[in-house]
Please model this.
Amino acid sequence: MAPPIRKPVNLVARPNMGTLTMDADVLKLTAPTQVVDLRMDATLLSVVRQALLVPVPMEVGATVDAIRTMQAQSGLVPNGLLAYDDVLVLLSRMPPGAMELSAALALASSVDPDLAPPAAEWPSFDEESPAMPAIELLQERLVDRGAAIEVDGEYGPATRDAVRAFQTAAHLEVDGMVGPKTWAALMEGVPVLGPGTSGAIVRVLQRLLDALGVATLTGTGNFADRTKAAVLSFQTEYSRPVTGTVSLDDWRVLVLASATNAAPAEGLGAEETDLRARFEAAIPQVPPAEAPRIRRVVDAAIASLGIREKPVGSNRGVEVDQLVGTRALPWCALAVSAWLKTGLGATSWAETPFGQEFAAVEQIRAWGNARGCIAPAEGRVAQPGSILVMRRDGLVTPPGVAFTKGHTGLVLCDEGAGVRLIEGNSGDGVRHTVRPKSELVGFVRWWAAA
Model:
């Protein structure tokens, strides 16, 4: 045991969220009205020390110094404090046999809610989406808002036009696509469903549960015993709180699972052909000498399309593990790192442009800044193969505060007001989507690093 340290050392500070300090082997979270002790045998500090590969009795000052060293090595701000991206990098360095990473992230969240990983977003749907019960849900919500369309699970022109009308009325970007912001607006006001409720939305719920195979249900529109049993089975199978009622977050997981199960049986052949054609039309925008390397990296990303988490929201699954490892971390930055390594034929991370595996979006942004190869998104043409950096929806990074909780992907082509890209950890897997430039921070042209 380390000797008691009389003066606690500040490890994490967050305005209005309390301060995490350590005295001997006890972490203390000091909030405005309480102090919570977190013991080393199940604490974030234990995770920190294991991830830094340092001895576990260890002076607090030495722990903070080790954190600073890790931050400097990883391209993060070397301040000795633990923010969201610092925790991701620490956990990505965990040795085999260390604390289960999902438990470590949950623990980190209990210390500071800002360390919680963002939940998987609602998936995006457009006219290219295959028919599925999830589309019935968005159609039912549009009908509830006054749209005169058929609830048939097909995202056709009538649904697209209804989406555009809804986006106009809701003061959203009008693109005819249902992404996270449009989903949030559509689902606003949906009540918790439980025994005794009825109506069109219960009928859609029954269709979703039946399609997932957790029960055999007919669309009666009445939430009775069989529907409750199906909801309980779904919540158990997908690691949800087992309540027998359907919350907004349950709807999100149901939609993600529906989108996962709706992958075309014939594979992604036609989709890949279309994406490659879009990319090849844009490739003249990059330096000719770099085009072969960029093409190989994009090929690696396109080959990952269709990878899905199993179960939804777990950051795991056989295919996900093969791409980014078995660490159960948020994995958009890990996927970009993997595509660079695979596409460039590198045998070690040191041979990649980053020089190491990046687990956090802040690492990519900081690396691009340090090497003069990041360009702002607004008003620029996104070059194919560049790495997009964006903030998560609803998260604001104030001036002077480190950029945190971002999202990233690989650019396929510029589409005017938006950018088509391939993303890992997009909802529950690897997907291609179009992001409005107004939501983006910048593009990292990794081949142009100084």
Summary: The chain has three domains: 9-115, 133-261, 269-448. The longest helix spans residues 60-74. The two ends are 46 Å apart (CA to CA). The beta strands are 9-13, 19-23, 26-30, 35-39, 374-376, 387-391, 406-415, 418-426, 429-436, 440-444.
